[in-house]
Design brief:
- With 347 residues, this protein is α/β, with parallel strands linked by helices.
- It folds into two domains: 193 residues, 3-Layer(aba) Sandwich (Rossmann fold); 133 residues, Nitrogenase molybdenum iron protein domain (Rossmann fold, 3-Layer(aba) Sandwich).
- The protein is built from 13 helices and 13 strands.
- The strands form three sheets. Strands 8, 9, 10, 11, 12 and 13 form a six-stranded mixed β-sheet that branches. Strands 5-4-3-6-7 form a five-stranded parallel β-sheet. Strands 1-2 form a two-stranded antiparallel sheet.
- The longest helix is centred in the middle third of the chain and has 21 residues.
Amino acid sequence: MRARTTTTTTAALAALSLALLTGCGSGSDGGGSGDGADGAAAPSADEQVGSVETMFGTVDVPAPEDGELDVVALGWSDAEMALSLGVVPVGVFDWMEFGEQSKGVGPWAVDLFGDVEPTVIERGQETLNYEQIQGLDPDVILNVRSSNDEAEHDRLSEIAPTVYAPEGTGAFATEWRVQLRSIGAALGRSEQAEEVIADVDGQIAEAAQAHPEFDGTTVASVSKFGEAYGAYLPGDGRFDLLGDLGFVNNPPIEALEPSGFFAAVSVEDVPVFDAETAVVLPIGYTLAETQADPLLQSLPVVQQGRAVFLDPETELGSAWSTASSLSIPVVLDQVVPQLAEAAAKVG
């Protein structure tokens, strides 16, 4: 099945943030013509669709002979970024856990596939299913928010031009605007990428302006997993959105030893989470189990109702971690009111 393009406008994104899935689906282009989202004719076969600088060098994406660009999206939220630009991938890696209907994206984005049923890419114990990817005959592979594994890059590049994050980007730490710009450049949709970024940034700014109490308020972006705890740091989408809203990282967390966008927190160091506010996302635990955690319950930020607990089994819990141009409006719509309630209890 060839990829089809759709037009995702600012109005559609705004509707998505307000109504999640109501009326957000875009139709296909009606005949696989390969027209761009701006209605321009597809480039001829001897032209490039796009070009982008990555940590592994310049990646040029040649225009397919039939004008239909087959895209395989492997990186975390890469599929959602492509969808927000009006490009429907034929193959996706399923980062979501919403069952057979997830199509590798959150429920807020599923309708943007229209009637396209993408192939879900499998991963074995150690590697991607390269044969499955090659069988899709992709024109370009997106692996922008990924582990940045060079061997994986080399194998994927044997199949098709493969897009990674810019040089200097940490594993799974591609900032969403950078991710969208890289994908937009590769797909020849840089103008659309800037329009989407401006729209989402406008929604973030509107939320921040509506809540001046967020400005300068300390926050801990917390995770509980296995027998351990952790704090998300600047450079991670979960923290960066809080920063964009005006919150600042709790100073004791900044003293921890970072590991990319994350800092491990020992049982003894759990008090570093006691900021003026906190957002807690469990991994491998239910919401109830996390809320009952005795160490977290010992913190004044939790005792005084200044912590927002997210349920990992809900749409919001997944949107919080996805940090895409399509999921951020969902988070703004649902988390900002909870943050406002928490911030109102500060002091």
